[in-house]
User: Fold these one by one.
Assistant:
Number 1:
Amino acid sequence: MNRGLITMLGESDLERLRGATRKLAQVRQILITPTPEQLAGCGPVLEEAIEILGYVERGQKTREPLPILRDELHVLRRELSVVTALMQQAAGYYLGWAQMLGAAMGGYTPYGEAAPLTGRSHVSVEG
Amino acid sequence: MGNLLGSILHGASSMRAFEQGLNVVQSNVSNAQTPGYVKQTQDFESLSFGLDKGLPGGVALGPLLSARDENAEQTVRRQQSASASADQRASDLSQIEPVFDVTEGSGVAGALSRFFNTFSQLSVAPNSNPSRQAVLDGAKSLAQSVNQSASALTTASGVADRDITNTVDGINRVLGQIASSNVEFQKRFDANKDPGLDAALHKSLEELSQFVDFTALKADDGTTTVLIGGQTPAVIGDKVYALSQDFAGSQARVLNVRGQDISGQIGGGRIGALLTTRNVTIPSYLNDLNNLASSLADSVNTALSGGLDAGGNVPATPLFTYNPANGAAQTLNVNALNPEDIAAASAAAPGGNANALALADLGRSRQVNGFTFTEFYGNLAGRVGRDVATAQNDQQSRGALLTQAKSLREASSGVSIDEEAAKLIEFQKSYQAAAKMISVLNDMLDTLMGILK
């Protein structure tokens, strides 16, 4: 593979990584005061970042590694770990609430777990 | 007439209820920034209404509801403990990092390089006294650098001891505050309804979580039991089971009230990080430094003892000396030799430079765990640098998690000034309406009294 192509691919990967890191940084800010709706919205960004990370890392195994790319991979991995931890904590918090509400409303299952929290469903037919 | 008087009385009771509602709003607003305080809500209950049965209806005071979210409190305390631990670790390691300076020409790395260079220079002029003196000076400079690094680590260990003592004092002080709150809960039957006491207790628990990880259990009488590391009782009711510290052995230890070592139960808070730095990290760095010092001294002494000095004799005194019992790095020293005592020549060629060349090569050969002296020291410095970077990353991550935990708690339990302002207007209007009703009823009563006269 010629040097020019390596550089071109490297730069493209670099942009991908930087883009994913930027998005994750925004998500991190949102996750400081998350609502359940925001939590759900953060999932796709996280998935995309993981995909990009995997794609670039697989590429690194076959191509000549660029130091700047390695640094950017490190930054993205670090950002991912922080965002994942924030999502886990927020999800755990809301899950705890859901369990308390579930137990308060529906008691406990025969297995000793809080009853699942179920929302009322409505079917509306218009004609 | 009876009904009219009853209506006035029940109007007054409504006014009292709304006044209490206003007091709660005022307390919420005043304490919006008070650490540990959570939003209080005054509940109201409607009174039975039925004119035919003489029930006037109206409103009565219900219970005062606290928005305390123990789920959120526990999350905050857990993150507070982890964040304080990460802060302490980053701070400790940042103090140690400069000891392992690898800047060109400085510290142990620079001294190592200069020392082995003196043998290269000696090989060029093996009978030159200034070149021999340079070897002695280089050895002294290297020994001093190693001594300084070891001393700096020992000092860091002493600083950790002092910080452990201060932290244990802090833990005992906060345990005392929690026990004092417990006394109030035991003494006062209405203490459970006191938001001020509740705020003071939770402020103390949050402060404690900075020092150490613990489990807090609420008893039926409202008191809080504190178990350090989830196991060691530290507060039960009004009793404090104070912790202490012990530095008598090689390891720093935290002891329970019976003098038993509970260091293994502590994993978080400032004390957890301090114990790790003091008992694991610093000894590990010091061990590597001792390994380097003893390997260096032994290798150089062995090489010199195989050569001949300026007089053609096997050197009687080794160049380096150290005491392994007190730490090779701390005690590495250079014996009082004369320049002529340096064995630059090999036994096979007296007056030559073969041994000086062999010693210069020693600096490039793998003598410590498969590494050269410089590589080994570089690896140690690299390990310290990685530890610092990991600690700083952890500090950032934990900081973000703590901020999130606090904002989740704030959202569920914090005082919202906007919400309180809306309640204030609502209660004020209700209060005014009740007052107006009393005024109208009073006028009617006056009129009735006038008719009856």
Number 2:
Amino acid sequence: MKRMLFLTLCLMLIPSLSFAAERSAESIIGDALDQMRGMTSRSTNTMTIHRPDWERVMTIEGYTRDREYSIFWVLSPPRDEGNGTLKRGNEMWTYNPKVNRVIKLPPSMMAQSWMGSDFSNDDLAKSDTIVEDYTHRLTDVTTVDGKKVYIIDSPAKPEAPVIWGRLRFEIREDNVLLKEEFFDEDGALVKIMEALEIKTMGGRVLASTLKVYKTDAPDEYTLLVVDAVTFDLALPSNLFTRSALKNPPR
Amino acid sequence: MHIELTMAWRNIWRNPRRSILTILAIAFACLLLVFMLSFQFGSYADMIRFSLNIHTGHLQIKAEGYQKNREIRKVISDPAAVAERLEDRPDIRDYTFRSNAFSLLSSEKRTYGSMITGIVPDREARLTTIEAVIRKGDYLATGDTNQVIIGDLLAENLRVDVGDELVLLGQARDGSVAASMLAVAGIFSSGQEEMDRSVAMITRDTFDRLYFMRGAVHEIVAVCPSLADVKPAVTGLKETLSGLDMRYPLKVWTWQELIPGLLQGIKIDLISGVIFYLIMIIVVAFSILNTFLMAVFERTREFGVLLALGVSHARLTHLLMLESSFICLVGMAAGIAGGAALTLYFQHTGIHIAGAAEILRFYGLPEALRPQLSWLSLLLGPAVVFVVTFLTALYPAWRVRRFKPVEAMHAT
């Protein structure tokens, strides 16, 4: 009996022991990415593209599975309703109901902006391989509002097919991505994505408002607000296909 | 002074064969320089005209900041007001409107990113060679609604031919999605790879509808009566256009600013030409030096006698310099006259290179190359020849200063 008790105690200790050990930079980033998506997710978002003399607000419905698959449709404005984007791994397709055609984005378009926002097509397409395409190093741990914040420096691997030279993350200990900075190959800071608001939604703590802007034009930015999100729901197996792109689930 | 001139002139003709050969060497160098420079300047003018006629025009008006990132929002909001100002100017021969958007063009099988340009077909044809370089199918017509003309390399990449359908997908001025089916009306080959690889043209009205431009355009392309009018026209336009009330302030670009590579290419070619001319002038200079030196050594006894008779060294040098100046001037006059005649002849008839006419016509170029005589091309080469010859003649004249009368008279 004594022996049993000791064993149980040992077993109980193991998870906490591993938790006590410093987490690897890769796992911190991986967990933060998974936190936003879950195994699967369904969300409605409002994207605001702001320019000094102009602003455009779109609502977007999106579904994701794992890190690899995602599909989005524009719900409003009415002119653009039904326009869709499908991402499978590094490949992207776009659908327009007016011409009723699904078009695969060629490599030359990957650097172009997604839907006119400050996100590029590449930002979406390469998001699931961030952990593999960069080497990650935990450089600092600070404390903000009583919570630990990991600062991770991630230079691109030399052979990785990415456009950025280096990334820098600030991730809170509860897996919330607070800030991501994008540096070009010369090491200059080009683009910043930061969390403006953090909420508990769909049972998870996440950045509900993200702001993306380029450092050379801080008065031009894109706001992405999560209006509603459900995690780990059952999704039809054929959702992330080109034919699904033409027929959004209603 | 008078007697020296007479003596110098007579001395030249004491050995007519040698003098004529020297004169011919100088004349030939001058003739060649006049013709080659005229030819080079003429071909540069053709090159500039050709390059600008493809697409660029002489000057372009755009919204401030458009040139850098080509953002679709940065428009000329009231092109009609600008056009009105252009109409009033005698230094603007013609102009046209253009709009651009980087978009996807997709055929059945393939998709490429492409620069979609909205043009005014009849105006565009007056300004550029685009109508002439349509290889297959037809040029756009005013009133076309879903026709597109594309570059031959783009057509090849997309695997499409005249009559095939393309899907266009891009982003409109208001940020919404621009999408349409287009029919390939024609395929062009301008000779400029970048344009043939990426540009697709639709009418301005179609562009306006698809990209929600609400009457705005991105560029106003203009040409002046001649290249020399560009600079004053740009200065004048900057002033006139600054008074217009536009959503974005306007900026005027000259062709030099739009395609800086063109002038750089010309400069490189000119420098290699100059090196060749310098080598030629040096060769001529040595042959002249030889002639002059021979003339001096041959006449050593004669100079001895003159010195003994009391002619000063300075006067003797003077005499020799006069002789070489005469030879040089006669050669130059002959060379300039001959060069001008030759250049004017070819300027009139043009130089037809066998077999090249077809290629030239293919790209909307004039079929004959024409040299262009100008004061610069006429006088620049001979002026350099004169300076070099004069410097060359100094050496034998300087040698004479060391002659002693008795020794010189005894020379064999």
